[in-house]
Structure prediction request, 181 residues.
Amino acid sequence: MASYKDYKSISAAKKAGSIYYTNKAGKKMLAVTKEDLDSWKKKNKGNYKGSALTAWANAKGKSIKPTKPKPKPLRSSIKPKPRPSSVKRVTKALNKGSPNLKKTKKNKKTDPEAKALGTLTILQIQKKPGVMTIMEELEVKKANLENRIAKAKKAGTKDLGAEASLRVINRRIKAFKEKNK
Prediction:
């Protein structure tokens, strides 16, 4: 089979069906004339990006099939996505850190009362996913206030409002725990 090195002109390469030829300096060149390239550009307008000469070489001088743009997926609604459910948080907390759910040494079973309370909490949250319990809200407020106080301390000032609010939140948490004993 003949190589592009055998063709010394564009016309010789075209007759042989090659898209390359070697010029007088021995350099590999594309076997296309300006007229051929202009007619190819008209036929394939909008079907290629970048340089027409590069696109012609990639297509090996043949026409490019028009590509259809991918349709964008339609959003089912304009409402924002719902918040992730709190169910995972509660079940993890009940399984890991709840002292009432720890196995006792005597019977090595979980406390049934605590298990029932956990199930009830999970069912309440499943009815309204993404809604925090009162205790969770108080803990989040407490953490935010502690962060504000720490930032103020780092800046060399005092956030008296945050300190007062933190005392109130701590009292509410203590009262809530005593009420639910």
